[in-house]
Write a structure and sequence with these properties.
The complex is a heterodimer of chains A (about 400) and B (about 350). With about 400 residues, chain A is α+β, with helices and mostly antiparallel strands. Helices cover about 45% and strands about 15% of the residues of chain A. Chain A has a four-stranded mixed sheet. In chain A, strands 2-3-7-6 form a four-stranded antiparallel sheet, with no helix packed on it. In chain A, strands 9-10 form a two-stranded antiparallel ribbon. With about 350 residues, chain B is an alpha+beta fold. Chain B has three domains: about 110 residues, Butyryl-Coa Dehydrogenase, subunit A, domain 1 (Orthogonal Bundle), CATH 1.10.540.10; about 90 residues, Beta Barrel (Butyryl-CoA Dehydrogenase, subunit A, domain 2); about 150 residues, Butyryl-CoA Dehydrogenase, subunit A, domain 3 (Up-down Bundle), CATH 1.20.140. Chain B is built from eleven helices and eleven strands. In chain B, helix 5 runs antiparallel to helix 7 and helix 9 runs antiparallel to helix 11. Classes of the chains: A alpha+beta (about 400), B alpha+beta (about 350). Chains A and B meet through helix 9, helix 10 and helix 12 of A and helix 7, helix 8, helix 9 and helix 11 of B.
C-alpha cells in the first residue's frame, strides 16, 4: 500500500500547476476566491483556454478530442484546478451529454455535436427535473409525440441550471405512457431557439437566479435529434448519472474552501479570542478536516477500484453524501465565523468591479449567500436520501 | 498510489484467518474468555510458530515485517475473529525492547516462549482518589521501582513486564520481589490487572526515550485502528444479514426505510474509518504521523461507537444476548475506543497540532 503519487503522477501534477500559473487569468481566480458571480463570458473564457490546451474533455476518447487520462490524472487535474480557484467547468455538454452521445449516439451525432461543445459554439443545459418529477424522476410527464419526421414536445422542465445561457437542451421526454414509467422515456436534443420554448428564471434564496423553468408548447423537434432508441432514454439517463465518478465528492473544492476557512479561523477574533483558540469552533474545524482527510483517501480508493474496472455503485453514493456534507459544513463554519457580519446583504458586491466600501471583514461578503446556495448540494444529483437508498439497495441485496 | 496489500501480507492474512477459523471458533471463544487469563496459552505459541508475532517486528530485531501495514494486516485478523491474547501488549512492549536492543528477550517473546506486557497507564489510588504512577530510582544497572500501574493487559499471564516511568522504560520480572499483581477479567474478554511495585528491582531499557514511547503508542493506534475496522466490518455484515432474514410485520426488517438509512450512514462511516486506518499506516514513517494517528483514533472511537450501538439497536432484543456473537463484537468495538486514549483525547491532540501548524 502506498498513498503517494507515482513519479509520473507527480510530474503530471507539476505540469498542471505550471499550466495554471501561466494560463489561469488572475482576474478569474480572484473572482472565484472572493466568491463573486461568474458571468457567461467568464465561464467561456476559461472553457476556451482549456480547449486550446487540449485539456477540456479529459474523459472523452482521444479521437473526439479527449486526453485519455487515467482516473488518477483526472483526479489530480480536478483537485489542482479547484485549489488554484479556477472557474468550474460547465459540465452539461462536456460531462453529461457527451458521454451519452459517445456511447449511445450515432457517429453523425458525435461528429456534429462534440466539436461544437469543445469550441463553445453550443452551450448545453439539462432538461431532467419537472415540477412533479424530482427524486422520482421517472414519473416525468413532458411529452413528445411523433408526427411525420418530427416530435411535438409539450410540457415543462425545471431547475434548469444556467439555462438562460443555453443554445441547446438535452431532455428526457415521455414517448409512451402505456407500460412501466421507466420504459416510455426517450432522450431528445432540442434547439433552445425553437418556437414554443420559453425560459423563466427562478430566483433562489440567495437572491441569485442560476436556475430556470423551461416551458415547451408544441415545439417541433426533428426525429434525427433522438439519441439512441425511442423509449430507452432511462437507460441513457442512468448511465449519465453514474458516468462521472471522479469528481462527485468535490474534494478539490472542499480543500480550497477549507484552506480559506483555516485562514479565517487563524485571523478572526470573536469576543477577543481567535476562532482557532475557541474550543468549540476548533473542535468543529478539526472534525471537519479529519473527515475531509478520510474522504480524500476514500475517494482515491474508489478511483483505484474504478481504474481497475470495478463499478463502485454504493461507494459513489457515499462520496456524494459525505462530499456534500463536508462542503456544507465548511460553508456553515464560514457563516458562523462571520458572526454579526453574516447579516449585511449587498447583492452588487458579488459582481466584478464593485467599488463600494466593504462592510465588516472583506471575506464575509458572500458567506451567507454561499451557505444558503450550498443547501442545493445535498438535494441535486440525486438527493442524499436517494443516495442512501442506492447504498442500501447495493449492500443489502434485498 | 497503490491500495493492494501485497502478496506476502495477503498470504500471512490468509494463514492467520484459516488458523483462527479452525482453532478459535465461536464455541472455543466462549470457553476461553471464561478461563483465568482469558486467552489460550497453547494457541498463543502456535500463532507465534505461524509467524504472527514475527510479522510485527523488523528483520534487524528478529522479526520479518514490522511496517505499519504488516501490523495492520495482523490486527485486522485479530479483529475479525475478536481473538483474545496479548497482541497489543506484545507489539508495544516489543517495540520498546527492540529500541533497547534486548534481542534475546524479544526473540523469546516473538517465539511465544515468554509473554510480555506493557504497564503504561497509572493506577487509581483509592486513598487519595488520584492517579498513582511508578517512580524509578537508581543508576546504571541498578534500578528500583515503586508505585502502581492500572489496567495492564494480560498482567496475570505475563512472564515479563515492561514498565514506563516518565520518559524511561524498565524491564521487570513477574514474580520478583516487590512485584505484586491483582488480576481480573475484562468486559470484552481477555484479562488485565493492577500492578503494584514496592522496591522492585528493574532493568533500565537504555535507548528508550519519550520519542520511542510515542512511537510505540503510535504503532499501537495503527494496530487498534485496523483491528477496529475489521470489527466494524463484522458488525455491519452480521447486521445486514439479520436485516435480510428477520421478519416483522410480514416482511424482512431490511425493507424499512428507517433502518435502511441508518445502515447506509453506518456503511459510509465505516469506509471513512477504513480510510483513516490506511492514512495512519501510510503516514507512520512520515512527519505527519501524529496528525494522522490522532485522526485515526478519533475516527475509530466515533465510528466504532456508532457501529456497536447501531448494530445492537437494529438487532433489537436478540442483540442484547450473550449467546449472539454480535454482542461480543460490539463490546470489543466499544472498548477499543478506550485504549490508548479515547476519541476526545485524540481530537484534542489533533486540535493542538492544527493550532501549531
Amino acid at each position: 500500500m502506498n498513498l503517494e503519487y507515482t513519479p509520473e503522477e507527480e510530474a503530471f501534477r507539476e505540469e498542471v500547476r505550471t499550466f495554471l500559473k501561466e494560463k489561469l487569468p488572475a482576474r478569474l481566480s480572484s473572482k472565484v476566491r472572493e466568491g463573486k458571480h461568474l458571468t457567461k463570458a467568464d465561464m467561456e473564457e476559461w472553457h476556451a483556454i482549456l480547449n486550446e490546451k487540449g485539456w477540456l474533455a479529459p474523459h472523452w476518447p482521444e479521437k473526439y478530442g479527449g486526453t485519455d487520462w487515467s482516473v488518477m490524472q483526472k483526479f489530480i487535474f480536478e483537485t489542482e484546478t479547484a485549489m488554484a480557484h479556477a472557474p468550474r467547468i460547465v459540465p452539461f455538454g462536456l460531462s453529461m451529454l457527451a458521454p451519452v452521445l459517445i456511447k449511445y449516439g450515432t457517429e453523425e451525432q458525435c461528429r456534429h455535436y462534440l466539436p461544437r461543445i469543445l469550441d463553445g459554439t453550443d452551450w448545453w443545459c439539462q432538461g431532467y427535473s419537472e415540477p412533479g418529477a424530482g427524486s422520482d424522476l421517472a414519473s416525468l410527464k413532458t411529452s413528445a409525440v411523433r408526427e411525420g419526421d418530427h416530435y411535438i414536445v409539450n410540457g415543462q422542465k425545471t431547475w434548469t441550471t444556467l439555462g438562460q445561457h443555453a443554445d441547446w437542451i438535452f431532455c428526457l421526454v415521455r414517448t409512451d405512457s402505456s407500460g412501466k414509467k421507466q420504459e416510455g422515456i426517450s432522450f431528445l436534443l432540442i434547439d433552445m431557439k425553437s418556437p414554443g420554448i420559453e425560459v423563466r428564471p427562478i430566483k433562489l434564496l440567495d437572491g441569485d437566479a442560476e436556475v430556470n423553468e423551461v416551458f415547451f408548447t408544441d415545439v417541433k423537434v426533428p426525429v434525427e435529434n433522438l439519441v439512441g432508441e425511442e423509449n430507452k432514454g432511462w437507460t441513457y439517463a442512468k448511465y449519465l448519472l453514474t458516468y462521472e465518478r471522479t469528481n462527485i465528492a468535490g474534494i478539490g473544492a472542499s480543500m480550497a474552501a477549507l484552506e480559506q476557512l483555516k485562514h479565517v479561523a487563524r485571523t478572526t477574533k470573536k469576543n477577543g479570542t481567535l476562532l482557532i483558540d475557541d474550543p468549540l469552533f476548533a473542535q468543529r474545524l478539526a472534525r471537519l478536516e479529519i473527515d475531509l482527510e478520510n474522504m480524500k483517501t476514500t475517494n482515491l480508493r474508489v478511483l483505484d477500484a474504478a481504474g481497475k474496472g470495478g463499478a463502485p455503485v454504493a461507494e459513489s453514493s457515499m462520496l456524494k453524501i459525505r462530499g456534500t456534507e463536508i462542503r456544507q459544513e465548511i460553508g456553515a463554519l464560514m457563516r458562523r465565523a462571520a458572526g454579526r457580519y453574516a447579516q449585511p446583504f449587498v447583492a452588487e458586491s458579488l459582481e466584478e468591479g464593485y467599488n463600494g466600501t466593504p462592510i465588516g471583514p472583506e471575506w464575509t461578503g458572500p458567506v451567507s449567500s454561499q451557505y444558503f446556495n450550498n443547501r442545493k448540494l445535498s438535494i441535486f444529483g440525486g438527493s442524499n436520501e436517494v443516495q442512501r437508498e442506492i447504498i442500501t439497495k447495493a449492500i443489502l441485496e434485498l | 498510489m497503490d491500495f493492494a496489500i501485497g502478496e506476502d501480507r495477503q498470504m500471512l492474512a490468509d494463514t492467520m484467518s484459516r488458523f483462527l477459523a479452525k482453532n478459535f471458533d465461536w464455541e472455543k471463544r466462549l470457553k476461553v474468555i471464561e478461563t483465568e487469563h482469558g486467552f489460550d496459552r497453547a494457541m498463543w505459541s502456535e500463532l507465534a510458530e505461524l509467524g504472527v508475532l514475527g510479522a510485527l517486528f523488523s528483520e534487524d530485531v528478529g522479526g520479518f515485517g514490522g511496517s505499519a501495514f504488516d501490523i495492520g494486516v495482523v490486527f485486522a485478523e485479530v479483529g475479525r475473529a475478536i481473538a483474545t491474547g496479548p497482541f497489543l501488549e506484545t507489539l508495544m512492549a516489543g517495540h520498546l525492547l527492540a529500541a533497547a536492543g534486548e534481542s534475546e528477550v524479544l526473540e523469546s517473546v516473538i517465539g511465544g516462549e515468554r509473554i510480555v506486557t506493557l504497564a503504561h497507564a497509572p493506577a487509581h489510588d483509592a486513598e487519595s482518589g488520584e492517579d498513582r504512577d511508578v517512580t524509578a530510582s537508581g543508576s546504571g544497572d541498578d534500578w528500583t521501582l515503586d508505585g502502581a500501574k492500572g489496567v495492564v493487559g494480560y498482567l496475570g499471564a505475563a512472564d515479563l513486564i515492561v514498565v514506563t516511568s516518565g520518559d524511561k522504560a524498565f524491564l521487570v520480572e513477574a514474580g520478583g520481589t516487590g512485584v505484586s499483581v491483582s488480576d481480573y477479567r475484562m468486559v470484552d474478554g481477555g484479562s488485565g490487572g493492577e500492578l503494584h511495585l514496592s522496591g522492585a528491582s528493574a532493568k533500565l531499557l537504555s535507548g528508550v526515550d519519550a520519542g520511542t514511547i510515542a512511537a510505540a503508542e503510535a504503532a499501537g493506534v495503527v494496530a487498534l485502528s485496523w483491528e477496529g475496522v475489521a470489527v466494524m466490518d463484522q458488525l455491519r455484515d452480521q447486521t445486514l444479514e439479520y436485516m435480510r432474514t428477520r421478519k416483522q410485520f410480514g416482511v424482512p426488517i431490511g425493507k424499512f426505510q428507517a433502518l435502511q438509512h441508518r445502515m447506509a450512514t453506518l456503511a459510509l462511516e465505516i469506509e471513512q474509518a477504513r480510510s483513516s486506518s490506511i492514512n495512519a499506516a501510510a503516514f507512520f514513517d512520515k512527519p505527519e504521523r501524529d496528525r494522522f494517528v490522532a485522526a485515526a483514533k478519533y475516527t475509530l472511537g466515533k465510528v466504532g461507537n456508532l457501529a456497536a450501538e447501531e448494530a445492537i439497536q437494529i438487532h433489537g432484543g436478540i442483540g442484547m444476548t450473550w449467546e449472539l456473537p454480535l454482542s461480543h463484537y460490539a463490546k470489543r468495538m466499544v472498548i477499543l475506543g478506550h485504549l490508548l486514549g479515547d476519541e476526545d483525547e485524540h481530537l484534542s491532540r489533533y486540535i493542538e497540532l492544527l493550532r501549531a501548524a
